[in-house]
Design a protein that fits this description.
Layout lengths: L18 H13 L2 H13 L5 H24 L6 H9 L4 H35 L8 E2 L2 E2 L2 H17 L3 H28 L3 H4 L11 H18 L4 H4 L7 H30 L2 H8 L7 H10 L1 H26 L1 H8 L18 H14 L4 H30 L14 H15 L5 H25 L9 H4 L2
Antiparallel strand pairs: 1-2
Helix pairs in contact: 1-7, 1-11, 1-14, 2-9, 2-12, 3-9, 3-11, 3-17, 3-18, 4-5, 4-17, 5-6, 5-14, 5-16, 5-17, 5-19, 6-14, 6-16, 7-11, 7-14, 9-17, 9-18, 13-14, 17-18, 17-19
Length: about 475
Amino acid sequence: MNRTESQSGPPQLARELTVKDATVLNMIDMIGVGPFITLPLVVGAMGGPQAMLGWVLGALLAVCDGLVWAELGAAFPGAGGSYQYLSRIYGPSRWGRLFAFLFVWQISFSAPLSIASGAVGASQYAAYLFPSLESHGTRGAVAINGISGLAIGLVLLSVLLLMRGIRAVSKISWVLWAGVMATLAWVIVSGFTHVGTHQIFAFPPNAFAFDRHFFLGLGSALIFATYDYWGYYNVCFLGGEVKDPERTIPRSLLLSIVLVGIIYMALNLSVVGVLPWKELQSIAATDLRFYTVSTVMQRIYGNWAGSVVTLLVIWTGFASLFSLLLGYSRVPYAAALDGNYFKRFAAVHPRYHIPHVALLSLGFTAAFFCLFRLRDLIAALVVIRVCLQFLLQGIGLMILRARDPQAPRPFRMWLYPLPALLSVVGFTFLLVSRENFSREIKIASIIALSGVVIFLMRGWKQRTWPFATEGLEAASH
């Protein structure tokens, strides 16, 4: 009999991930295709190499928010991550039940958006090898062409590979991680050995004029940088499958942020040193041709290098899809197991011991979202997640500390409450410091409102809060 199940009970998740395993999963989640496709968008937003400021601030925001995740993850090490945290912070039988449901509801949209953005970004690189993939088929925000078709194929392949046990998944992640590191090492070393320092420091006039234009550009740059760093919390979603989670979660989370931050800085300096920032800015003005790294390697070594690195970037993007889908599929599972989401998502595969219904649901939704434009996917993803998850969580940690200061905390945030405050301020700035930011805010509001309506309908049907009050206090303890 498998040690993850008993004779009388249903199959359970297996705790088999070590610090190394979790760090690798975090890193391939964080890196993916993001830095390879967003560099021109960041440079275009700020209009020069001062765009590096966006990457620096993005790293600082990741560290501050990472400390929030580390403390909560060590205190509540179960599957589902934020679902567990929001429920515990705001009360599992009252407001915490609503906020936790809204988190899972937005994950049903934002997780597929995240997965789809990686798939579309990787597929756009494939157009370097096969230009016909960029054939016209775009109507507004929807694109039906070879790129979207390839993106759908990558998502479905990741679903297929994840339909197996967590130990086998961990082994696959190590193979994918090796390809990611090889790609980054080759690009970074090549860039630094052919770098033109005059290009890195060729700032345009008034590059650091701290006016309205500067801060609007910084806000736009920060949203893409934030997108690239996200993923450091992936281990928290896998909390039910981690060995010694009180130590493994904080260590793997913070280690992955530091390592990826160093890699990003080196990658961007090496690229800007080879490809002039004005050329990157012109790339950002188009919706396609984001294969920046392929162009860099082509100029250094020739066409063969551009082709090889393109394949490696696609490999890197696929690795991220794999890790994202793995982590996010545990969120609706945890909520359904707790009775606060559609019960079908609580199903665990009898052989592989994975939440296969949640995995398939998110995978097929992500495949559909592959039909939308990349920049729209990223903007919608970041705003939805910040509004309905990160702000609630950062504020919630401070509420939890004030309400129960003596509670056991295996990991305590350094310099508390400064990192939590900075994360809340940083995410708020990210939301409101861009042109036309209200569009994504409206999308997030619609998702939140629809989630509240569904929650209330379920509450009425099941006679749970806020339509029933008997026994709620007892249930919350």
